[in-house]
Design brief:
Layout: H1 18-35, H2 40-46, H3 51-59, H4 66-75, H5 81-94, H6 109-120, E1 123-128, H7 139-147, H8 153-171, E2 176-182, H9 183-187, H10 193-206, E3 212-217, E4 231-235, E5 244-248, E6 253-256, H11 259-274, H12 279-299
Parallel strand pairs: 1-2, 2-3
Antiparallel strand pairs: 1-4, 4-5, 5-6
Helix pairs in contact: 1-3, 1-5, 2-3, 4-5, 7-8, 10-12
Amino acid sequence: MSAATSGDSVRPEAPNAPTVLRILLGAQLRRLRESRGISATEAAKAINGSESKISRIELGRNSVREVDVADLLDRYGVTDRAEREQLLNLASQSNEHGWWRHYHDVLPTWFQAYLGLEESAQFIRSYEVQFVPGLLQTEEYSQAVIELAAFPHESTERRVQLRQERQRRFAAGGVRLHAVIDEGALRRPVGSPDVMRLQLRHLMDLADEPGVTIQISPLRTGASHAAPGGFSILSFAAEDLADVVYVELLTSALYLDKPSDVELYSEAMELIRSTSTKPEETRRFLWSMLTEHEELDSAVPVIASRP
């Protein structure tokens, strides 16, 4: 029996963010097509589209019209009324806008897909080498990071608000975060010394929060993995959704869901975690860094101005 016809194809606990619904719909349409031995080229003819359009639909990259879903179901020979209604409703719901639509003026399209995934993830594992993860940043640190891109003032403020909204929704629960932060990201000055101190204290507080696990990858351990930069792995409650690896670039992002890719990144994550501070040691590690910051500040001589 295909996933599209099984009783739990759309489970009650399945996420409802549009991005994830599109992925669910695409996965079920792909299984239907493959179970019938129909090629993507043949499926494309049913909706007067291209093979690449079928690929985008099946990967959940694009919204899909209900009429196209209906035509594909006709081509796949799906006649069961309940099954058709279920998939057509899924198509309708997946075309709804997410809360982040209100930030469309400052939100690149390639990042909207990530917000949909983040919104519906059950568990996020992340590794960051340049900055503190966005979900764990203070407002002051976020502003300092965003200002590095030299956006106009109003745009900067909107981007900070967007990050704060993500954090509010994260704090409301529903998703667990396991973040590994490279020590270099915590030693690299972002903003003023006060900004860095506040950020370190914030991480110390978050380390005790339920649903949040923080580890630090110390510089002294040296290179311990082959991953060239930061990445996140998102896992979902719905059984039909495979893990997705998110790799952010300067002007775009990669979304990897091939099992072989996910496996390699999962292995890299486990290696990084195994050579990082244990979660129960993280608060003490952050405290030593904060103390070091304060000692350095107190050691800076105050130069009196001339009379």
